[in-house]
Write a structure and sequence with these properties.
Layout: H1 9-17, E1 28-31, H2 44-60, H3 64-78, H4 81-89, H5 93-99, H6 116-122, E2 126-130, H7 135-145, E3 153-155, E4 161-162, E5 165-166, H8 172-181, E6 189-193, H9 196-201, E7 208-212, H10 236-240, H11 243-252, H12 260-263, E8 299-301, H13 304-314
Parallel strand pairs: 1-2, 1-6, 2-3, 6-7, 7-8
Antiparallel strand pairs: 4-5
Organism: Cupriavidus oxalaticus
Pfam family, one: Hydrolase
Protein name: Pyrimidine 5'-nucleotidase
């Protein structure tokens, strides 16, 4: 083909999709999004909690104080608000996740480290984004952060169905399928996460793990939090015995049919999967006291800058 002619359309499209930065080497990075690549504890996680509570209130037709108590009950019984909403109210997971991530002012809520795009470009190896958040939200955050061009693929919760069941992180079957699709051997993959329980779940699968601690907060609103008028943590026992809440749960029990297949496989968005407990009130958030690196964590860093420097120094 003469040098003056442009490449065929299919070749041009492939070139446009090629991620920016250093894609050399055998390493494949599987990046989480919230609290890994940006500070979600600052504004996004509190907003997600408010949106979840409002969603529960709409479905149940109750006030926010009752919805907050129901959320606490579902979180304690099933490990996630979404599981309870699916089981007792026939909620569509996609609708719940979409409603929990509606941010008209998202651009003002995203906080990223200075030079994040440059650090990702310099990090050697292929890079995929793997998040339990919805696709539209994930891509919007990447665009605002200016790092969407660094990833060859975005794997959001909509792409985490395995054999007809939703299998988000930390499900091992989903990750194994993803590695097969990407033609990556487990020992070549590194999962980069802020949620240490996810890293622990994948221990023993052959993949390496990197724990990002820079955005962790001792007061991240990770669990259903109290709203004005709701009982405080000291009153949890009495709230769990609240007759109105119990009657609501019992009344909806017969609507659980048909959702048992999903209730054990759907996990909640990152806002409820963090380790630190949430508290009520206007107490300022502070940095978490991060423990030493667990045995199942191969790399522990505070930021992408630190990760990139360490990998460069090690020649990985």
């Amino acid at each position: 083909m003469p040098a003056s002619l442009p490449p065929p359309r299919r070749v041009r499209a492939r070139l446009r999709r090629r991620p920016a930065g250093d894609n050399s080497g055998r390493m494949v990075w599987l990046f989480d999004l919230d609290n890994t690549l940006h500070d979600a504890s600052h504004a996004i996680f509190p907003a997600i909690n408010r949106l979840m509570t409002a969603y529960v209130a709409r479905v149940l037709g109750c006030d926010e104080a009752t919805a907050s108590r129901v959320r606490v009950d579902y979180w304690q019984r099933y490990g996630a608000t979404l599981l309870g909403m699916i089981r007792h109210h026939g909620v569509d997971p996609a609708d719940f996740l979409r409603a929990a991530h509606e941010f008209p002012a998202l651009a003002g809520m995203v906080r990223v480290q200075r030079g994040l795009a440059a650090h990702l470009r310099r990090l050697p190896g292929r890079k995929l984004l793997v998040t339990n958040a919805p696709q539209d939200y994930a891509r919007a955050v990447l665009d605002i952060a200016g790092i969407g061009h660094c990833f060859e693929r975005v794997v959001a919760i909509e792409q985490m169905w395995v054999h007809g069941h939703l299998r988000p992180k930390p499900d091992r079957r989903m990750l194994r399928r993803l590695l097969v699709q990407a033609r990556v051997a487990p020992h070549r993959a590194v999962l980069v996460e802020d949620t240490v329980s996810h890293l622990k779940r994948y221990a023993g699968t052959g993949i390496r793990t990197a724990w990002v601690t820079g955005y962790l907060r001792t007061m991240a609103p990770s669990r259903p939090h109290d709203v004005p008028g709701a009982p405080t943590s000291a009153q949890d026992d009495s709230s769990r015995r609240d007759a109105a809440v119990r009657s609501t749960l019992e009344a909806e029990e017969d609507r659980r049919a048909g959702h048992a297949a999903q209730e054990h496989s759907v996990t909640l968005v990152a806002a409820e999967s963090q380790v630190p407990q949430a508290q009520s009130g206007n107490v300022p958030r502070v940095r978490a006291r991060v423990p030493n690196r667990p045995a199942y964590v191969d790399i522990k860093v505070q930021s992408m800058h630190q990760l990139q420097r360490r990998m460069r120094r090690n020649g990985s």
